[in-house]
Amino acid sequence: MNPDLQSIGVAVGLVVVALLGLVIVWKVTQSLVKLLFWMAAAALVLLAAWWLLARQGILPPMPIL
C-alpha cells in the first residue's frame, strides 16, 4: 500500500473516531444533566417531606437545620 494513501486513511479514521467521540460525550453529558436535575428535584422533595414530618413531630428534626 502507498504510504501517502495509508497516512490519509489513518487521518480520516482519526477524524471519524474524534467525531464519534464528540457525539458520545454530547449524549452522555445531556443525559447526565437530566439525571442530576431529577436527583436534585427528588432530594428537594425528600427534604420538604422530612421537614413537614419533623414539624408534626413524626420524625426527628433534620440534622442539617
Characterize this entry briefly.
This protein has 65 residues and is mainly alpha-helical. 82% of the residues lie in helices and 0% in strands.
Write up what this structure looks like.
The chain is mostly helical. Helix content is 82%, strand content 0%. The protein is built from one helix and no strands. The longest helix is centred in the middle third of the chain and has 53 residues, at 3-55. It is rod-shaped, with a radius of gyration of 26 Å.
SSE blueprint:
Blueprint: H1 3-55
Q: What labels would you give this structure?
A:
about 60 residues, mainly alpha, about 0% strand
Please tally the helical runs, counting DSSP H or I stretches of 4 or more residues.
1
Query: How would you classify the helix and strand content by structural class?
Result: mainly alpha
Mean pLDDT across residues? 85
Question: What is the number of strand segments?
Answer: 0
Q: Could you give the distance between the termini?
A: 71 Å
What global shape is seen?
rod-shaped
Radius of gyration: 26 Å
Instruction: Name the helicity range.
Output: over 70%
Order of helices and strands: H
Low-pLDDT segments, ≥5 res: none
Percent of residues in beta strands: under 5%
Largest sheet data? none
